[in-house]
Amino acid sequence: MAEKLKIIPLGGLNEIGKNITALEYGKDMIVVDCGVGFPEDDMYGVDLVIPDFTYLVKNQDKLRGFFITHGHEDHIGSLPYALQQVMAPVHVTPMTGGLIRLKLEEHGLADKVKLINHQPGDVVKAGCFQVEFIHVNHSIADAVCFCITTPVGKVVMTGDFKIDPTAEGDMMDLGRLGVLGNEGVLALLCDSTNVERTGYTPSEQVVAESLDRQFKNCGERIIVTTFASNMHRIQAVLQTAHRYGRKVAVTGRSMENMLKVATELNYLKAPANTIVDIATIKSLPKDKVVIVSTGSQGENMSALYRMAFSTHKQVEIQPGDRIIISASAIPGNEKAISKIINELYRKGAEVVYEKSEGLHVSGHACQEELKIIHALTKPKFFIPVHGEQRHLQLHAKLAKQMGMNPKNIIISDIGQVIELSSRSCKVNGTVPAGKVLVDGTGVGDVGSVVLRDRKHLAQDGMLVVCVNLSSQDGTILTGPDIITRGFVYVKESETLMEDLRLLAIDSLERCRKKGVRDWATIKSTIKNDLSGYLFKTTKRNPMILPVIMEI
Predict the structure, then answer these.
(1) How far is CA 541 from the centre of its chain?
(2) Out of 157-171, 369-383, 468-482, which region has the weakest mean confidence (pLDDT)?
(3) Given this model, what pLDDT does residue 413 score?
(4) DSSP character string of 386-435
(5) pLDDT tier for residue 16 given thresholds of 50, 70 and 90
(6) Considering 191, 321, 439, 529, which one is annotated as catalytic?
(7) What whole-number distance in Å separates Cα of residue 134 and Cα of residue 143?
(8) Where is 24: in which H helix or E strand?
(9) Based on C-alpha coordinates, what's the Rg of the chain?
(10) For 32-52, how does the pLDDT look when each residue is reduced to its tens digit (9 = 90+)?
(11) E strands of 238-375, at which residues?
(12) 445 pLDDT band (50/70/90 cuts)?
């Protein structure tokens, strides 16, 4: 039988973020994007969520390279973790490469990884694949989509995009997509993030005009927080500040890194003498200062958070400060953002964050833009990507409205193997895929059991029963002592503590009289007796840890 092209999403389906897709044909494989996801509320202590790279490790002899669409964390964040397990060249555009280089330096990989820069229009041969870089508009510079020529046909992967006719630089290369559509596109894998929204995504120009309104006639200090990666937005802040005679200081590690990379690569053109060091702003009049800060998502280590809660070393919020939040909340971050806004108001600041102010536009295509991509590429098969189940289903529905045969649309899941020939497209089997949790320097050592324990501790606390038994006859020598954390305040619950102590003594005596000397059985008896009593009396279920020592 003839070989079939395998498209294997290892992330980015039925979830937001963690985008990574492998394409495999015969003895060759390439990987498009390699992003992180962010921990859910019940992932206590977890810093990042990365894909399971088991399949890539197993097939590393086939891997011809990583191809990255753009420099957002959900597309590049897990690359250092992947490259520690499988080594392959990384193909990027210059801005994306600059951001990845910073990450590789942090992980001690900068000298080991071959990072290759390309421009839109370049075609890269990787085994049996030919990957063409095509310019798109997004909320970060140097974003591209890929046309991947395979032995069975052309596959277009849009990455994240929107169509912005007034974007700084060039508009998305719709002409090239139209040419590819006329030549014949076998499959389209298209961003579904904004498919719920009708119409078109507004241009970044809207934000520039809104910023001008906020700066005009403002006699107070202005603090702008936005996504560090959105250079177009930061460029607009710089130009607006210069127009009104204000100096700009930058605070926040990711913002400083992004500014450094973008300035070096000439993607950010700051007007002369506009950017100043954050330490100098105290000597300037407040109506001559703009501070650009991280923290638009309420991150508790960000510059804006530290300003709000008075832990920032250089900036203290003053009554009258105008704080512009030029970003929308990523789902799940709403509470953290509200917490910061409330604290800023408490300090007398004016906070501008309403959608009606036009201070943020999405970087993802709405329905009409998606229709344009479908119409231009005219794919034989369609696979919606980058979204939760509702996004994928709605995008599939949109494709049907565009006249696609429902049989040619595949809503997949991570780990499923999609097999394509020039005439057919179907799901055939699965590969290992899922979430690997990063906690500090530990990668993958926090699993479902550890998470379950953390959740249990967070919800109900813990109770430790310590007792010393005689090694001769099993009688109690000292204890049992009851220690609690996160369950009750011991000084106010002395009666309950004494009841638990007596219950533990009764459990131990019962085991001794039965001749039970197996520690596991004794511990189980104590846990069962105490947990039953606690639930009956307090309706709580703390984690109970018996600690037994023999003397």
Answers:
(1) 33
(2) 468-482
(3) 93
(4) SB-HHHHHHHHHHHHHTT--GGGB----TTEEEEE-SS-EEEEEE----E
(5) confident
(6) 191
(7) 9
(8) strand 20-25
(9) 29
(10) 999 988 776 666 666 778 888
(11) 247-251, 275-276, 289-293, 322-326, 350-352
(12) low
**Phi, psi (degrees; rounded to nearest 5) at 430:** -135, 165
Please determine, for residue 144, whether its predicted confidence score (pLDDT) is greater than 70: yes
User: Which residue is it, tokens 């020939």?
Assistant: 421
Active site (annotated) includes residue 191: yes
Structure tokens at 466: 């310590």
Are 250 and 256 spatial neighbours (Cβ–Cβ below 8 Å)? yes
Residue that is written with structure tokens 């070393």 in the block? 313
Catalytic one of 91, 312, 364, 391: 364
C-beta separation of 23 from 5 below 8 A = yes
Joined tokens for residue 514:
């039965």
Residue 353 confidence (pLDDT): 85
Structural tokens at position 121: 């229009």
- If phi > 0 it is left, if psi is from -120 to 50 it is alpha, else beta; for residue 423 that is alpha
At 363, the amino acid letter reads G
Q: What's the mean pLDDT when you consider all of the chain? A: 87
- Count the neighbouring beta carbons within 10 Å of the beta carbon of residue 427: 14
Q: Are 466 and 480 a contacting pair, CB within 8 Å? A: yes
Q: What b/e string do you get for 513-542 counting C-beta neighbours within 10 Å, with b at 16 or more?
A: eeeeeeeeebbebbbebbbeebeeeeeeeb
Residue type, 254: S
Nearest to 7 by CA among 129, 173, 181, 96: 129
Contact present, 507 and 526 (Cβ < 8 Å): yes
CA distance 479 to 207: 68
Residue 269 neighbours by CB under 8 Å, 6+ apart: 235
How confident is the model over 488-515, as pLDDT tens digits? 766 777 788 888 888 888 888 788 777 7
Element (H, E) at 213: helix 204-215
